[in-house]
Write a structure and sequence with these properties.
- The chain contains one helix and 25 strands.
- It is about 0% helix and about 50% strand.
Length: about 270
């Protein structure tokens, strides 16, 4: 079993829990809650900012007892854009499910901590199509670099069946701005239909002796979470099965500057 793949716990409640401590890194935290109608989840972080993403379902949201209303709309990640909430450090949030809910809790260190709570609705989000041919994928930026946050970068991607994504292979594991930034990253994967599978490889450059410090290829199933502490991290779908993933990234500087694998750079000109 790969140390970079997490299979969610069965049942309801907090079914995925990624922390800097158990991931052996510094910046990114990621939880997934599955709530039945009437269930609730709540939390307060004094040191991290948080982005709540309604993966599916609807729920009533409060932030420091302020009512933000019932949020959520889609019942599947393959049916439109999400509702999300940005929360600075020190705010206690609560979500009470009014339908079955799948809720992602994305966390990263707060720096200034002076931003307000804000609801991010589907109308606030654009849809970008990247790539061409069998490398087409559809991107929804929830918390991109151009929107205010201290550390977090959050994005959704849907890759049609048979296509590749996060490809040509790229990495962001060096604090070498303006050329490359250091960002840890999690992927939360969903498949449609759910019995499908996809693949993800996480690997570093070859050393002088031809070996790699990290080289793991994983079969990814519906609901799996993968960790990218360093290295290139392309995904490939299988025919007939669309792949969704939610990316959470954070590092010492909030900017996404990546380095493409030079041996595959030609694909950008093909």
């Amino acid at each position: 079993m790969s140390k970079l793949k997490i299979t969610q716990k069965p049942g309801t409640g907090k079914v995925v829990n990624v922390t800097p401590q158990n991931a052996s890194w510094t910046y990114v935290g990621f939880d997934l809650h599955k709530l039945g109608k009437g269930d609730a989840a709540s939390e307060k972080s004094d040191s991290d900012e948080t982005c709540l993403v309604f993966i599916s379902g609807k729920g009533k949201v409060t932030a420091d007892a302020k009512d933000l209303g019932e949020l959520g709309q889609r019942m599947s990640v393959f049916e439109g854009k999400p509702w999300s909430v940005y929360l600075p450090a020190g705010v206690e949030w609560k979500v009470e499910a009014t339908t079955d809910v799948e809720l992602a809790v994305c966390r990263a260190p707060s720096i200034k901590g002076d931003l307000p709570v804000r609801v991010i609705g589907p109308d606030d989000l654009g849809l970008e199509t990247r790539g061409k041919g069998s490398n087409v994928r559809h991107v929804i930026n929830i918390l991109p670099e151009g929107e205010p946050a201290d550390s977090l970068l959050v994005v959704e991607v849907i890759t049609p069946g048979g296509n590749t994504s996060s490809y040509p292979p790229h990495k962001h594991d060096q604090n070498n701005l303006p050329h490359e930034s250091f960002l840890e990253e999690t992927y939360y994967h969903r498949l449609n239909p759910p019995q499908g599978f996809a693949f993800q490889r996480v690997y570093t450059d070859k050393r002088e002796d031809g070996t790699r410090e990290l080289d793991e290829a994983m079969a990814v199933e519906d609901g799996d979470v993968t960790l990218v502490p360093k290295g290139y991290h392309p995904c490939a779908t299988t025919a007939g099965y669309d792949l969704y993933y939610l990316n959470v990234m954070a590092g010492p500087v909030r900017t996404w500057k990546f380095h493409n694998a030079p041996e595959h750079q030609w694909l950008l000109k093909a």
